[in-house]
Write a structure and sequence with these properties.
This protein is of the alpha/beta class. It is 55% helix and 10% strand. Strands 2-3-1-4-5 form a 5-stranded parallel β-sheet, with helices on both faces. 24% of the residues are buried.
Length: 302
């Protein structure tokens, strides 16, 4: 009779006294789950170490994803500020072709730094060449002063800080002014427009060209900053304009160099810039302007 048959308990104690082989963790775990297979003693569950880091990773990863999803939905659903909401009167609709044909309507952009003398020369061109003068700045100031304008305060803040008003507002105001003038004139054919102080940025230029009317060329008055600053300070004594002060003037210079000069460079590469030196007196400058206008096929009408 074997020892195992004679006394199972004694046999078990004998087996416990023998050297035991240390099993790898995976087999130890399996032994804990099914001890009757290995035949060994039961393992105390408290001795099993639970790995916590996977659960921490899952918790924080899931929490982060949930927070991101909530914020994304909130941003998508939150209403825009009133000044940024779509307004059918000022937001130019998408079009396949420009409103006006360059074969019927002539548009000349007039650019130059603040104080370069654009307004003075535009008045001469209106008188002698039959242009309709449209000042982007004047249209914006009129809009900001209009009592029922929802964009008035926004435009005022942009102008006071020397910043450029959003493209959609400026382009639509110009198109509205051109449409009103042509209606009063009674005919589109032969209409001439000088658009003073526009385009100030590349997006304005491209948007106007594709949706309103392609320009004939850009009349650019080139003038050093120190000369323009002196002119503006003198003008500020009587103009009553809120932006004719030293602080606003510096901001306007910086804005013109950073945003408007790329527009001049862009059209110059296309051969659509007429550059006039604007450091001389108004009469001398205008003589040069008339010469350059004749070279582009524009004759005086008066």
């Amino acid at each position: 009779m074997s020892l195992r048959t004679f006394s199972p308990r004694l046999h078990q104690l004998t087996q416990l006294s023998k050297p035991r082989t240390i099993l790898p963790p995976i087999f130890q775990t399996y032994q804990f789950i099914r001890p009757y297979v290995a035949g060994g003693p039961r393992v105390d569950p408290a001795s099993q170490k639970l790995k916590v880091w996977p659960f921490i990773f899952i918790f924080f990863g899931g929490t982060g994803a949930f927070v991101f999803m909530v914020k994304s939905r909130a941003n998508a659903e939150s209403p825009k500020p009133r000044n940024q909401q779509h307004n059918p009167k000022l937001s130019a609709p998408s079009k396949d072709t420009p409103t006006f044909s360059p074969n019927s309507v002539s548009v000349i952009y007039v650019l130059g730094g603040p104080g370069a003398g654009k307004g003075t020369q535009c008045a001469n061109l209106v008188r002698d060449y039959g242009f309709k003068h449209l000042s982007a700045g004047d249209l914006l100031r009129e809009e900001q002063d209009r009592p029922d304008s929802e964009f008035g305060s926004m435009i005022k803040d942009y102008i006071a800080n020397g910043k450029i008003v959003p493209m959609e507002v400026t382009v639509q105001l110009l198109e509205n002014a051109m449409t009103d003038y042509i209606k009063k004139r009674g005919a589109e054919k032969g209409a001439r427009f000088l658009i003073d102080g526009f385009p100030r940025k590349m997006d304005q230029a491209l948007k106007f060209e594709e949706s309103v009317c392609p320009s004939q060329f850009t009349l650019f008055f080139d003038c050093p900053e120190d000369v323009m600053q002196e002119r503006l300070i003198n003008r500020g004594k009587t103009s009553g304009r809120s932006d004719d002060n030293a602080e606003s003037i510096k901001k306007r210079f910086r804005t013109f160099v950073e945003t408007s000069m790329p527009v001049v460079d862009y059209f110059e590469k296309e051969g659509k810039v007429v550059k006039v030196e604007a450091t001389k007196g108004p009469d001398e400058i205008y003589e040069e302007v008339k010469k350059r206008m004749g070279e582009r096929g524009f004759e005086m009408v008066r």
